[in-house]
Design brief:
Length: 231
Amino acid sequence: MAPHADIQDEEDIVRLPAPEKPPMSTSPRLLIIGAGSRGNAYAKAIGESTNGICAAVVDPIVYKRQELGRKYIWGNEKPTDGQEFADWKGFVTWEETRRARAAAGDEVPEGIDGVFICVQDELHKAVVLGLAKLNLHVMCEKPLATTLDDCLAIYKALLPPDTSKAPERIFSVGHVLRYSPHNMLLRKLLLEDRVIGDILSINHTEPVGWWHFSHSYVRSVTHPYSILVSY
């Protein structure tokens, strides 16, 4: 049985109101943590499909960090203060110092509005919890974490002081297929149009390609492709 299936009292679960959508007239400054394929994909999408600005990158590998920075942040110039960091802890320290200096009236670089977390699965908890005190918008790649306890720790760390009100910041997980056109249409047909009546059970098989299986064995057992392989 799944480890969460023995929850007896749902009164302990805090269900928050949905936060308001950020105004689309602004140009949010976004940080990429993890300059791998996902980080590069988000950095590219920020420039091509949004009104946001890819403002900084975090990655311990110098080549990867600077390659993303040249493509999407500083171009052929040299990176300026606050545009690159070797790890997320360095960014947190920098941002706390920047805020303190701004409060003292000093002239400081612009801050970060939101973060894309694209590090390895088992590092998600540490990064999310470390960033929580900065109160930024966060998009964390899937899976949220590799254990139920880590998921709950993230949930608790991001609860607002007053749980009767909507959070001031958006936290999302990169389950992108939920928003793909075919899945959205399927949801509408089944749940809204009720084209087949009441749903009694679902057997959903996803035909993933060989390139997904090639890395399923090196990721966490909670990753959807790893679960598929285990069957």
